[in-house]
Write a structure and sequence with these properties.
The complex is a heterodimer of chains A (251) and B (106). Chain A is mainly alpha-helical and 251 residues long. Chain A has 12 helices and no strands. By secondary structure, chain B is an all-alpha fold. The chains are: A mainly alpha (251), B mainly alpha (106). At the A-B interface, helix 1, helix 3, helix 4, helix 5 and helix 6 of A face helix 1, helix 2, helix 3 and helix 4 of B.
């Protein structure tokens, strides 16, 4: 690890990860305003709205709950719960990915689990070093957790006064942030193929499936290309495919 | 079922899914194929998030083409000329906000 070295490398790592964390985190946290305002409009009280942001803490799932309740009321409770759980399924994929990065004792991973969402995983895994990945994950998680819960409360209390946060272009900022994290990874054919395939799958399925599910399907592209190693680099150590080669090598 | 039941039950299920992934042993991801899949999952996740964040609609419309798309185009050009990350993000917000202010592609 480079982190034991004195000098500038670790600081560059850290500041890159922290900058990405804040850029993504602040844009996303501002959406808590919309969530808080829409949640109270859907019939939840301020406490219930805040409990969703504190404990569920997964934007897509939270919007699913209030979206279903807003149109179907409490009669639609099972659909609200099923919808939010389905949307939350991709978080299990993220936590599988983050497990080895977080490491450490069980309580640290339990803490990390609460903050394992799209953005913290995206910023974390986009960093080039393990140390940068950890910093990116924790800082993004912290910025969004604090920001999202504060803006949820504000949105729930003041509601419509602020208007639509889209007016400030924050939705476009979030898309650009994800593109900025993706960009440096598109250097060889295999990740380019995965990115293109995942983008096409997401775009084609978006009109027909509940929100959140297209991202899950897009993940399947990575699994298929990853397992078959299509367009991938040849293994650096030649595999002993022929018994004669093994004998020649004196094995 | 009360609203509290819905809020708490749904929260517990979503949190349980987050915890479940951490129970997968870390050794599994050290082998070449799982490691490659994990690396590519990040790429697929980011690409899918770019798409959904750009064209996902609101209020019953699954897809909406609006100011986010030109804003994303601008950020792609800035990334191609190696602009800093924060400039890329801010430029996208400004482009979308200005377009909406002018009433174009609201």
């Amino acid at each position: 690890m480079r982190s034991t070295e004195p000098g500038r490398t670790p600081d560059v790592e850290r500041s890159k990860a922290v900058r990405a964390a804040f850029a993504v985190g602040i844009a996303v946290a501002a959406y808590g305003l919309s969530f808080g305002a829409l949640a109270t409009a859907s019939g939840l009280d301020v406490w219930q709205t805040c409990v969703l942001s504190l404990f569920m803490f997964s934007g897509g799932s939270q919007f699913a709950v209030i979206g279903v309740l807003a149109t179907g009321g409490l009669a639609a409770a099972p659909a609200a719960i099923a919808g939010s759980t389905l949307l939350g399924a991709r978080n299990a994929l993220y936590s599988m990915r983050m497990g080895p990065v977080i490491g450490g004792p069980w309580w640290r991973r339990l803490l990390a689990a609460q903050w394992t969402i799209d953005e913290s995983t995206a910023v974390g895994t986009a960093q080039p070093t393990l140390r940068g990945q950890r910093i990116g994950f924790w800082v993004t998680g912290a910025v969004i957790y604090v920001g999202w819960n504060l803006t949820t409360l504000i949105g729930a209390l003041v509601g419509d006064l602020l208007g639509d946060v889209r007016m400030y272009g924050l939705d476009a900022a979030a898309a650009a942030a994800f593109l900025g994290l993706l960009w440096p990874r598109l250097k060889t054919r295999q990740p380019i193929a995965v990115a293109a395939g995942a983008a096409v799958v997401a775009a084609l399925t978006l009109p027909f499936l509940p929100p959140g599910v297209p991202v899950l399907l897009a993940a399947a592209v990575a699994v298929v290309i990853g397992i078959t190693n299509w367009l991938g680099p040849k293994p650096t150590r030649p595999a002993p495919t022929h018994p004669a080669l093994d004998r020649d090598a004196g094995l | 079922m009360t609203a509290w039941n819905v809020v708490l039950l749904a929260s517990i299920l979503v949190l349980a899914l987050k915890i479940a992934g951490y129970l997968v042993p870390a050794r599994l991801l050290e082998k070449p194929t799982p490691a490659r899949v994990a690396m590519l999952l990040t790429v697929a996740l980011l690409a899918a998030l770019v798409v959904t964040q750009t064209i996902q609609g609101t209020g019953g419309h699954p897809v909406a083409i609006d100011a986010r798309l030109p804003a994303l185009g601008v950020s792609a050009i800035l990334l191609a000329v190696r602009a800093p990350f924060i400039v890329v993000v801010l430029a996208a917000a400004v482009v979308a906000a200005v377009l909406r202010l002018l009433g174009w592609m609201a």
